[in-house]
Amino acid sequence: MFVHVRELGETVLNNHRSLEERQLQTNNLVAHHQKQLTAQVDDLSFNISLVTAYSRQVLNLQSVCANHDLIRKSLERVKPEGGKNSATIESCSCAESKSSGLFRMKVPNSAGVTMSVLCELQRFGGHWLVIQQRFDGSENFTRSWSEYREGFGVVGEEFWLGLEVVHRLTKSSPHELLVELEDFGGAYKYARYASFAVAGEDQQYKLLNVGGFAGTAGDSMEKHKGMKFTTIDRDYDTNPKNCAEITKGAWWFHNCHESAEKDGKVVLTF
To answer: In what residue span(s) does the Fibrinogen C-terminal domain sit (predicted)?
Structure first.
């Protein structure tokens, strides 16, 4: 009888230990599932945030698309009407085409170097060389000195032709300057100058001459006469800060808020 009770006690003890082990396993399994559930809740919250952000983007795109006709019409006003012409010209005044478009032009004093240029051949009597065109913000104009010297962008779209070319052109013969400004609402202004000349890099492409103003945009260039060209890495303006950094574009700044450097078209003729 004593032996039987002892064996039964060991059995109960073993069963108790087995139950404790199973309980521990169950607790561990529950804790693991809780962690998984917490992680899934976090993922769900993150995905909800993404969906919310994407929804905002969709709404913004819908707003842009709602105005696509207005934007398209604006782009059509600045897009060259003509295609690319194969003939190499001395200047836009030599272009035989009557339609504005892209041409190959010889760069003055460059041993026969040619470059792609945009000639405006219809507005204001034609024969204008476009040196800057901005209309949709697709091109970054917050650029360095070397980039403004050499030029950047895609000629015919948004671009800056290059300070060195502008200097060589205005040095080789007298030029006029025309600045055209037009917003997406169709409001148009222009400023035309009978004389325009830019010095070489040894003088930091100083604005040597600009005068004989006419137009509806107001004379915003006269006060810049004699100023050197300012970029984000070369500051020659009179403002304590760098006007190129403030306005997100380089120019012959005197002070930051007096510049004609706006979205629009800047062209030369002679």
So the answer is: 83-270
